[in-house]
Amino acid sequence: MTPPTVRVVKVRLSGLDDDAGAVADLLTRLLPELSGGRCQTGEISPAYPNRRGGGARRYFDLYLLDTDPTADDHAVNTGPARVRRSRPGGELPESS
C-alpha cells in the first residue's frame, strides 16, 4: 500500500462578531470524524478585524490525506454538498 499524500487547502472564514471562530472550532472538532480521519485542520489564527465593515476573519489550513481508494473501506461518494446561503436580511431561505 502506498503512503498517503497530504494536500493543503488554505481557508479564510469571515463573519460577524466571532462567528468565524466558532465555525473554525466546529470544523476542527468534527471534520476528522466525519472524514474518517482523512481531513484535519491546522492551527486557527487569532481573529483579525475585517477591513471593510464589521466582524472578523480567521485563517487556517486543512490537511487532506489522499489514500488509495481501493484500500479504503470508508471511501464513499455522496455527491455534491448542498449549500444554504443567507439572504440580505440575514435570514436563511426555507428548506424545500
* Low-confidence parts: 71-96
**Mean pLDDT score:** 77
Shape: elongated
Query: Helix- and strand-based class?
Result: alpha+beta
The total count of strands amounts to: 4
Total number of helices: 1
Helix amount: 10-25%
Give the topology:
Layout: E1 5-15, H1 19-34, E2 39-41, E3 48-49, E4 56-66
Antiparallel strand pairs: 1-4, 2-4, 3-4
What does this structure look like?
- The protein is of the alpha+beta class.
- The chain has a domain of 62 residues.
- Helices cover 17% and strands 28% of the residues.
- The chain has one helix and four strands; from the N terminus they run E-H-E-E-E.
- Strands 1, 2, 3 and 4 form a four-stranded antiparallel sheet that branches.
- Strand 3 and strand 4 form a beta hairpin.
- The N and C termini lie far apart (44 Å).
Describe what is shown at a glance.
By secondary structure, the protein is α+β, with helices and mostly antiparallel strands. The protein has a domain at 5-66.
Relevant terms:
single chain; 96 residues; alpha+beta; 4-stranded antiparallel β-sheet; 1 helix; 17% helix; disordered C terminus
